[in-house]
Amino acid sequence: MKIAFVGGTGPEGIGLAMRMARAGHSIAIGSRSTERGEEGAAKVREVVPAAAASGGDNLTVVAGADVVFLTFPYSGQQTTLAALGSALDGKVVCNVAAPLEFKQGVGAVALSVEGNSALQEAIAQLPGARIVSAFQNLSAEELQQLDHPIEADVLVCGRDAEAKEIVIGLANQIEGVRGIDAGGPSQSRYVEMLTSLLINLNRKHKTQTAIRIVGI
Ligand SMILES: NC(=O)c1ccc[n+]([C@@H]2O[C@H](COP(=O)([O-])OP(=O)(O)OC[C@H]3O[C@@H](n4cnc5c(N)ncnc54)[C@H](OP(=O)(O)O)[C@@H]3O)[C@@H](O)[C@H]2O)c1
Fold it and tell me: What is the pTM for the complete model shown?
Protein backbone atom coordinates (compact mmCIF):
# COMPACT_ATOMS: atom_id res chain seq x y z
CA MET A 1 0.00 0.00 0.00
CA LYS A 2 1.00 3.63 -0.43
CA ILE A 3 0.69 5.36 2.94
CA ALA A 4 1.01 9.13 3.41
CA PHE A 5 1.58 10.93 6.70
CA VAL A 6 0.16 14.45 6.96
CA GLY A 7 2.36 16.24 9.50
CA GLY A 8 4.60 13.19 9.27
CA THR A 9 7.73 15.06 10.35
CA GLY A 10 7.04 14.74 14.10
CA PRO A 11 8.02 11.78 16.26
CA GLU A 12 4.67 9.97 15.96
CA GLY A 13 4.49 10.23 12.17
CA ILE A 14 8.12 9.19 11.73
CA GLY A 15 7.65 6.26 14.14
CA LEU A 16 4.54 4.99 12.37
CA ALA A 17 6.20 5.50 8.98
CA MET A 18 9.22 3.45 10.10
CA ARG A 19 6.95 0.62 11.20
CA MET A 20 4.87 0.75 8.01
CA ALA A 21 8.00 0.89 5.83
CA ARG A 22 9.38 -2.12 7.64
CA ALA A 23 6.13 -3.95 6.92
CA GLY A 24 6.81 -3.36 3.20
CA HIS A 25 4.56 -0.40 2.45
CA SER A 26 5.60 2.64 0.41
CA ILE A 27 5.52 5.66 2.66
CA ALA A 28 5.38 9.39 1.96
CA ILE A 29 6.16 11.93 4.66
CA GLY A 30 4.08 15.09 4.37
CA SER A 31 4.79 18.50 5.82
CA ARG A 32 3.78 22.12 5.43
CA SER A 33 7.24 22.44 3.87
CA THR A 34 8.45 20.25 0.98
CA GLU A 35 11.97 20.32 2.36
CA ARG A 36 10.96 19.11 5.83
CA GLY A 37 8.91 16.33 4.22
CA GLU A 38 11.95 15.18 2.26
CA GLU A 39 14.11 15.32 5.40
CA GLY A 40 11.53 13.17 7.20
CA ALA A 41 11.68 10.56 4.45
CA ALA A 42 15.48 10.52 4.71
CA LYS A 43 15.16 9.82 8.46
CA VAL A 44 12.98 6.80 7.72
CA ARG A 45 15.43 5.50 5.08
CA GLU A 46 18.30 5.87 7.57
CA VAL A 47 16.64 3.43 9.95
CA VAL A 48 14.88 1.23 7.38
CA PRO A 49 17.37 1.16 4.48
CA ALA A 50 15.07 -0.88 2.22
CA ALA A 51 12.22 1.61 2.68
CA ALA A 52 10.40 3.01 -0.33
CA ALA A 53 10.13 6.44 1.30
CA SER A 54 9.56 9.84 -0.24
CA GLY A 55 8.60 13.23 1.17
CA GLY A 56 6.87 16.39 0.10
CA ASP A 57 4.19 18.88 1.00
CA ASN A 58 1.03 17.53 2.61
CA LEU A 59 -1.18 17.94 -0.45
CA THR A 60 1.29 16.21 -2.78
CA VAL A 61 1.81 13.17 -0.56
CA VAL A 62 -1.94 12.74 -0.03
CA ALA A 63 -2.59 12.74 -3.77
CA GLY A 64 -0.67 9.51 -4.37
CA ALA A 65 -1.79 7.63 -1.25
CA ASP A 66 -4.16 4.71 -0.64
CA VAL A 67 -4.19 5.38 3.12
CA VAL A 68 -3.51 8.70 4.86
CA PHE A 69 -2.42 9.06 8.48
CA LEU A 70 -3.10 12.40 10.21
CA THR A 71 -0.11 12.78 12.55
CA PHE A 72 -0.14 16.46 13.53
CA PRO A 73 -1.46 18.15 16.69
CA TYR A 74 -5.21 18.47 17.20
CA SER A 75 -4.80 22.26 17.39
CA GLY A 76 -4.10 22.25 13.64
CA GLN A 77 -6.88 19.85 12.66
CA GLN A 78 -9.52 22.28 11.44
CA THR A 79 -7.20 24.36 9.25
CA THR A 80 -5.20 21.42 7.91
CA LEU A 81 -8.31 19.45 6.91
CA ALA A 82 -9.77 22.59 5.32
CA ALA A 83 -6.59 22.97 3.25
CA LEU A 84 -6.64 19.32 2.13
CA GLY A 85 -10.39 19.40 1.42
CA SER A 86 -11.49 17.16 -1.44
CA ALA A 87 -7.98 15.65 -1.77
CA LEU A 88 -9.04 13.26 1.00
CA ASP A 89 -12.36 12.28 -0.64
CA GLY A 90 -12.74 8.52 -0.89
CA LYS A 91 -9.44 7.83 0.89
CA VAL A 92 -9.01 5.75 4.01
CA VAL A 93 -7.80 8.26 6.61
CA CYS A 94 -6.53 7.40 10.09
CA ASN A 95 -6.59 10.20 12.65
CA VAL A 96 -3.98 9.75 15.38
CA ALA A 97 -4.71 13.04 17.18
CA ALA A 98 -5.31 13.08 20.93
CA PRO A 99 -6.62 16.52 21.98
CA LEU A 100 -4.70 17.49 25.10
CA GLU A 101 -2.71 20.25 26.71
CA PHE A 102 0.06 20.34 29.28
CA LYS A 103 -0.57 22.17 32.56
CA GLN A 104 2.16 23.14 34.97
CA GLY A 105 2.01 20.94 38.06
CA VAL A 106 -0.66 18.66 36.58
CA GLY A 107 0.82 17.14 33.42
CA ALA A 108 -1.21 16.16 30.38
CA VAL A 109 -4.87 17.17 30.49
CA ALA A 110 -7.35 15.76 27.97
CA LEU A 111 -9.38 18.46 26.23
CA SER A 112 -13.14 18.32 25.83
CA VAL A 113 -13.74 19.24 22.23
CA GLU A 114 -16.87 20.73 20.73
CA GLY A 115 -17.66 17.81 18.44
CA ASN A 116 -17.16 15.23 21.25
CA SER A 117 -13.97 13.78 19.74
CA ALA A 118 -11.29 14.74 17.22
CA LEU A 119 -12.57 11.92 15.02
CA GLN A 120 -16.18 13.11 14.99
CA GLU A 121 -15.06 16.65 14.19
CA ALA A 122 -12.93 15.36 11.29
CA ILE A 123 -15.81 13.26 9.91
CA ALA A 124 -18.20 16.21 10.16
CA GLN A 125 -15.72 18.45 8.37
CA LEU A 126 -14.86 16.01 5.56
CA PRO A 127 -17.81 13.62 5.10
CA GLY A 128 -16.39 12.38 1.78
CA ALA A 129 -13.27 10.90 3.41
CA ARG A 130 -13.32 7.46 5.05
CA ILE A 131 -11.94 8.65 8.40
CA VAL A 132 -11.28 6.41 11.38
CA SER A 133 -9.13 6.96 14.46
CA ALA A 134 -6.36 4.76 15.88
CA PHE A 135 -2.84 4.65 17.37
CA GLN A 136 -3.47 7.55 19.83
CA ASN A 137 -2.25 5.32 22.68
CA LEU A 138 0.99 4.15 21.05
CA SER A 139 3.99 6.27 21.99
CA ALA A 140 6.34 7.64 19.36
CA GLU A 141 9.31 6.51 21.43
CA GLU A 142 8.17 2.88 21.32
CA LEU A 143 7.38 3.10 17.61
CA GLN A 144 10.83 4.41 16.76
CA GLN A 145 12.69 1.68 18.66
CA LEU A 146 12.45 -0.87 15.90
CA ASP A 147 14.44 -3.54 17.74
CA HIS A 148 12.19 -3.21 20.78
CA PRO A 149 9.02 -5.33 20.82
CA ILE A 150 5.81 -3.36 21.40
CA GLU A 151 3.15 -4.95 23.53
CA ALA A 152 -0.04 -3.03 22.85
CA ASP A 153 -3.57 -2.99 21.55
CA VAL A 154 -4.62 -0.34 19.06
CA LEU A 155 -8.27 0.65 19.35
CA VAL A 156 -9.79 1.57 16.02
CA CYS A 157 -12.99 3.66 15.93
CA GLY A 158 -15.12 4.80 13.03
CA ARG A 159 -18.29 4.31 11.03
CA ASP A 160 -16.69 2.86 7.87
CA ALA A 161 -16.30 -0.87 8.55
CA GLU A 162 -13.99 -1.52 5.61
CA ALA A 163 -11.72 1.42 6.52
CA LYS A 164 -11.52 0.08 10.08
CA GLU A 165 -10.54 -3.37 8.77
CA ILE A 166 -7.77 -1.86 6.67
CA VAL A 167 -6.36 0.10 9.64
CA ILE A 168 -6.69 -2.93 11.95
CA GLY A 169 -4.69 -4.89 9.35
CA LEU A 170 -1.95 -2.22 9.37
CA ALA A 171 -1.82 -2.25 13.19
CA ASN A 172 -1.48 -6.05 13.16
CA GLN A 173 1.59 -5.74 10.93
CA ILE A 174 3.50 -4.07 13.79
CA GLU A 175 5.12 -6.86 15.78
CA GLY A 176 3.38 -7.34 19.15
CA VAL A 177 0.49 -5.01 18.30
CA ARG A 178 -3.13 -6.07 17.96
CA GLY A 179 -5.73 -3.91 16.25
CA ILE A 180 -9.22 -4.03 17.76
CA ASP A 181 -12.50 -2.69 16.38
CA ALA A 182 -13.54 -0.38 19.24
CA GLY A 183 -16.86 0.71 17.76
CA GLY A 184 -18.32 3.85 16.25
CA PRO A 185 -17.00 7.41 16.12
CA SER A 186 -18.39 8.39 19.54
CA GLN A 187 -16.10 5.82 21.21
CA SER A 188 -13.04 7.64 19.93
CA ARG A 189 -13.39 10.26 22.69
CA TYR A 190 -12.48 7.70 25.35
CA VAL A 191 -9.50 6.41 23.37
CA GLU A 192 -8.27 9.96 22.72
CA MET A 193 -8.59 10.87 26.41
CA LEU A 194 -6.67 7.79 27.55
CA THR A 195 -3.54 9.25 25.96
CA SER A 196 -3.28 11.89 28.70
CA LEU A 197 -3.46 9.21 31.37
CA LEU A 198 -0.72 7.20 29.65
CA ILE A 199 1.55 10.26 29.33
CA ASN A 200 1.12 10.99 33.05
CA LEU A 201 1.80 7.34 33.94
CA ASN A 202 4.95 7.44 31.80
CA ARG A 203 6.17 10.47 33.73
CA LYS A 204 5.30 9.07 37.13
CA HIS A 205 6.82 5.63 36.54
CA LYS A 206 9.59 6.75 34.14
CA THR A 207 8.57 4.23 31.49
CA GLN A 208 6.57 3.85 28.29
CA THR A 209 3.07 2.52 28.86
CA ALA A 210 0.55 1.16 26.39
CA ILE A 211 -2.82 -0.53 26.73
CA ARG A 212 -3.95 -4.13 26.48
CA ILE A 213 -7.64 -5.05 26.57
CA VAL A 214 -8.31 -8.40 28.21
CA GLY A 215 -11.35 -10.52 27.46
CA ILE A 216 -11.22 -10.07 23.68
N1 LIG B 1 4.24 11.84 20.28
C2 LIG B 1 3.61 10.79 20.74
O3 LIG B 1 4.18 9.94 21.47
C4 LIG B 1 2.15 10.56 20.38
C5 LIG B 1 1.54 9.38 20.83
C6 LIG B 1 0.22 9.13 20.45
C7 LIG B 1 -0.48 10.06 19.69
N8 LIG B 1 0.14 11.20 19.29
C9 LIG B 1 -0.62 12.15 18.47
O10 LIG B 1 -0.02 12.13 17.18
C11 LIG B 1 0.00 13.44 16.63
C12 LIG B 1 1.43 13.80 16.28
O13 LIG B 1 2.21 13.79 17.44
P14 LIG B 1 3.71 14.37 17.42
O15 LIG B 1 4.24 14.28 18.79
O16 LIG B 1 4.46 13.75 16.29
O17 LIG B 1 3.37 15.90 17.08
P18 LIG B 1 4.28 17.16 16.73
O19 LIG B 1 5.71 16.77 16.69
O20 LIG B 1 3.89 18.26 17.64
O21 LIG B 1 3.74 17.53 15.28
C22 LIG B 1 3.93 16.70 14.17
C23 LIG B 1 4.06 17.55 12.92
O24 LIG B 1 2.83 18.22 12.66
C25 LIG B 1 3.08 19.44 11.98
N26 LIG B 1 2.34 20.49 12.66
C27 LIG B 1 2.60 21.07 13.86
N28 LIG B 1 1.66 21.97 14.18
C29 LIG B 1 0.79 21.99 13.14
C30 LIG B 1 -0.39 22.74 12.85
N31 LIG B 1 -0.86 23.64 13.73
N32 LIG B 1 -1.01 22.50 11.68
C33 LIG B 1 -0.55 21.57 10.81
N34 LIG B 1 0.56 20.85 11.02
C35 LIG B 1 1.22 21.04 12.16
C36 LIG B 1 4.59 19.68 12.04
O37 LIG B 1 5.10 19.35 10.75
P38 LIG B 1 5.56 20.44 9.68
O39 LIG B 1 6.00 21.66 10.44
O40 LIG B 1 6.69 19.73 9.01
O41 LIG B 1 4.37 20.67 8.83
C42 LIG B 1 5.09 18.69 13.05
O43 LIG B 1 6.39 18.21 12.80
C44 LIG B 1 -0.64 14.36 17.67
O45 LIG B 1 -1.97 14.61 17.33
C46 LIG B 1 -0.56 13.58 18.97
O47 LIG B 1 -1.66 13.85 19.81
C48 LIG B 1 1.44 11.47 19.62
Answer: 0.98
